[in-house]
């Protein structure tokens, strides 16, 4: 029986192109950001889809991922570096957007929705609670960015030392 837990290269290419095209399409059809929202925030959200699509294609269609989700030993070094950079870019963009929501200038309005069987409620709260929540998320994403950056760089360095004759591309 075939292992159905990982994407085939063809499926990864299709799903990756779908993600990337969704991000690219948003550039043309997304509504204008609310007044006071910088254009880079909207562009960053759209870019997340493109980066996610590129990561899927690089990891599963180009790279050789084993059953655990790790690259196999024969995956080219350049493919692994690209995947590392794509992952860092995704986390970095998420942190920057979350940081702008938490710490950027201008008013914010947040709502909370709770939906249970036979009960639903929605409240609109002040900006302080929302900014605190997004601020905490930004701190966690920044820590994740630093941790992934450090551990990934160390891993790539050790890998490069173990395979000194392999070309970078």
Strand order, sheet with most strands:
1-2
Distance between the termini: 35 Å
Count of all domains: 1
From the alpha-carbon coordinates, what is the Rg to the nearest angstrom?
A: 20 Å
- How many helices? 4
Kindly state the mean pLDDT as a whole number? Answer: 86
Helix content: 55-70%
Q: Any idea what the shape is? A: elongated
- Beta-strand share of residues: 5-15%
Count of beta strands: 2
Pattern of helices and strands: HHHEEH
Low-confidence stretches are: none
Query: Major sheet: size, sense and barrel closure?
Result: 2 strands, antiparallel
Structural class, from helix and strand content? mainly alpha
Short description:
This protein is mainly alpha-helical and 169 residues long.
What does this structure look like?
The chain is mainly alpha-helical and 169 residues long. The chain contains four helices and two strands. A two-stranded antiparallel sheet has the order 1-2. Helix 2 packs antiparallel against helix 3 and helix 3 runs antiparallel to helix 4. The chain is elongated, with a radius of gyration of 20 Å. The mean pLDDT is 86.
Produce the secondary structure layout.
Elements: H1 9-29, H2 39-62, H3 77-103, E1 110-116, E2 119-125, H4 127-162
Keywords:
169 residues, mainly alpha, 2 strands, 4 helices, single chain, two-stranded antiparallel sheet
């Amino acid at each position: 029986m075939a292992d159905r837990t990982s994407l085939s290269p063809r499926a990864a290419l299709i799903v990756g192109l779908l993600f990337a095209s969704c991000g690219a399409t948003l550039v043309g059809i997304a509504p204008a950001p609310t007044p006071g929202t910088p254009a880079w925030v909207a562009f960053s959200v759209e870019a997340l889809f493109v980066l996610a699509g590129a990561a899927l294609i690089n990891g599963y269609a180009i790279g050789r991922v084993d059953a655990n989700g790790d690259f196999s030993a024969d995956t080219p070094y350049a493919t692994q570096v690209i995947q590392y950079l794509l992952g860092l870019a995704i986390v970095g963009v998420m942190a920057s957007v979350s940081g702008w929501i938490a710490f950027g200038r201008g008013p914010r309005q947040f709502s909370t929705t709770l939906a249970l069987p036979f009960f639903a409620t929605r409240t609109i709260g002040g900006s302080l609670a929302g900014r605190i929540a997004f601020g905490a998320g930004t701190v966690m994403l920044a820590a994740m960015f630093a941790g992934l950056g450090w551990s990934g760089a160390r891993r790539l360095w050790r890998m490069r030392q173990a395979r000194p004759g392999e070309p970078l591309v």
